Amino acid sequence: MSGNKSYLKAVLLKDVKIECGLLAKKNELVRKEVIPYQWKALNNEIADADPSNAIKNFRIAAGETEAEFLGMVFQDSDVAKWLEAVAYQLTTNHDEELENLADSVIDLIEKAQQPDGYLNTYYTIKEPDHKWTNLAECHELYCAGHMIEAAVAYYQATGKRKLLDVMIRFTDLIDSKFGREDDKIKGYPGHQEIELALIKLYNITGDSKYKELANYFIDERGQEPSYFDIEWEKRGKTSHWKDFRKIANGEYYQAHKPVREQATAVGHAVRAMYMYCGMADVAKETGDKQLLEACKRLWNNVTKKQMYITGGVGSSGHLESFTFDYDLPNDTAYTETCAAISLVFFAQRMFHLDPAAEYIDIMERALYNGVLSGISEDGQKFFYVNPLEVRPEVCQQRYDHKHVKPVRQKWFGCACCPPNIARLLASIGQYIYSYKQNSVFVNLYVDSTVDLELNNNEISLKHETNYPWDGNVKLTILKAKKPDFVLALRIPSWCKKAQLKVNGEKINITELIDNGYVYLNRSWTARDTVELSLNMPVERVSANPQVRENIGKVAIQRGPVVYCLEEVDNGSNLPAIYLPDSTELKAVYRSDLLGGVTMIKGQAIKLDESTWSGRLYSTENLRYKPIEITAVPYFSWNNRQAGEMLVWLNKMN
Fold first, then answer.
1. Non-reducing end beta-L-arabinofuranosidase-like GH127 catalytic domain: from which residue to which, for each copy (predicted)?
2. Which positions are annotated as active-site residues?
C-alpha cells in the first residue's frame, strides 16, 4: 500500500523475542508491575495520588452509573494508551487474565459508543450539544487517534475485532464530518495524533479513505483563514481553558503556516513531534517528496539546534514548548517524557524513509536517557518533566521552577506520560530490527532473537550482547532458507573505533560502511557468526557555544548513556564541582546498584566552602579540595533518595 515499496519496515513485534539486558528488564517491568499499577491508577486506587477517573468516565458514558465527568478533557486517551500497552504485552506474552481484563474494558468502550459511532466521554457526559466545536483545545481527534492505535494493536495481538470495529465506526463518522468537500468541516486537530493513527488504520484495513483523511489533516493545517480563529468566533469567543487564546497562538499548534513551509520546530513540543510523525507517515504512503523534505528540515532543526544531550525536547515549561534555537537551560528544562517518546517515533519513521544511522543514533539517545528517566526502577513512580539539574529547595520555593519535581510522582492529573512510556517499552521489540527487500538492518543492540521473511526467504538470527554496558555484539545465523541476503549493522556515531569479524575473520569496515551502517552482502549458512566490537570509552561531551548555559562545562557519556551526579554519592552543592581535563574516568559495573548499571568514577576538585566563614563575597583566590566523584546513568537518578542532580559539570584545564 506504500507510495514507495522500497522503504524500510519494522520487523513485527510478534517476530522478536527479547532475551535479557536493560531493555528486557524494562519490558518485563511493564508486564509485571507497570500495567497492573496503571490499571489501579485509572480506577483511582492509588493512595495519595492524583485521581484519574478515566474508567469511571466510561462507565458513566455507558450508562452503568450516574455522576459528573471528572478529569482532563483528554482523559480517554490514558485508557487507550493503557490498552495499547496491554496489546503489545499480549503479542509477546500470553496472559489470559490480562486479556480478559482488556476485553472487559473494550466491552465498556463499546457500550459507551453513541449510536452514530461517536466516542468521547467528555462530550457524551458534559457537553453533548457541543461536539466538534472546539477542535483547538478539547482533544476529540487526539483521543480518537490514541484509541485507533489501541484498536489496531489489539487486533494485531489477539485477532479480536471488537475494538477495531468500534473505532472504524467512529473514524467513518469523523471522515463524514471533515474534509475538503463543501458540506464538511474544514478543521483539523488542535493536538495532533490522529494523523499517524489513520495511517495505521489504513494499513490494517486497506481502506484508502483513512489515508486520504490523514493527508487532508496535514494539508489543511496552517491554511488561511485560520480554522481555529473561525471556530473561536462561532463559539462566541469562549475557551475551554481560561485565557487560553491570550497565550496560545498559531505557532503553539504548529498552524502558523502550511506544514510544507515549516522549517523550525515551534510551539507545544509533543503536538509538534506527533505532527512530524504523521507527516512522515503520509510522505511514505503517498510518495510526497515535498512533505519528506519538510520532515528533514524539521528533523535537522530539532536534533541539531533544539535537543538536549538526553534526547529531551521542548525546553520551556510555559506551554510545554519549543522556544528558539540553542535555548537549552538545564534547571528549568521541561523536556516532557512524551516529547522524548515521540522523538523515538519520529526517528524510526525518518530512518525507514531515509536509511541513515543518524536517525537511530538519536532514537537511541532519546530512549536510553530522556525516555527511561520518566519511570522509576519499581515502575510505580513517574517523571513528567525531565530536567538536567535539580536542587529540591529551588523546585519547592521558586515559581519559575514549579514545574520541576525533585522526585517522581505516583500519578498525575494530566497523566499522558505514564501510559505512553508503558506502550513504548512494551513494544520495544519492534524498534530493534528493520528490513526491506533482501536486507535486514540491526538498529538497536539488544539481546534477542528474530524470525522474519525476506522475499520468501525465512531467516532467524540470534543476537547476544550486554549493551549498553559494553559494546560487544554477537549475531548468529540460526536459519537461512536462502543463503543470499544483506545484514546491515549500525556503527553508532559515538563509536570512534569498531572491529568486525565474520566467522572469526576480520573484516575491513571502512570498505563496507554507508551512512553509518556496515553492509554485509554474502551467502550465509546456519551457524555463521558476526562479531561486532564497539569501543566504548568514557567521554567528555561539550555543547555548542550558542548553548550559553553550558559554556565551560562538560557532560559525561559512555556509549549511548548520559551520566549525572547525585547528591547521595557526591554531597551537596554539585555545581561547586570541577572536572579536570587530566582526570581519568573509569567505568565500573555494579550488579547491586539500581538494578545493575555501569557507574563512572574519577577524581575531581570542589570549591572549599569552609574558607568562607560566613562571607557572602570575597576578593581572595578561590580554594579547592580534592574529591572522588561517582556518576550514574541519568535515567536512574532519584531511585535511591531525593537530592540534588547535575548533568553538566564545570570543566577545568
1. 15-429
2. 320, 416
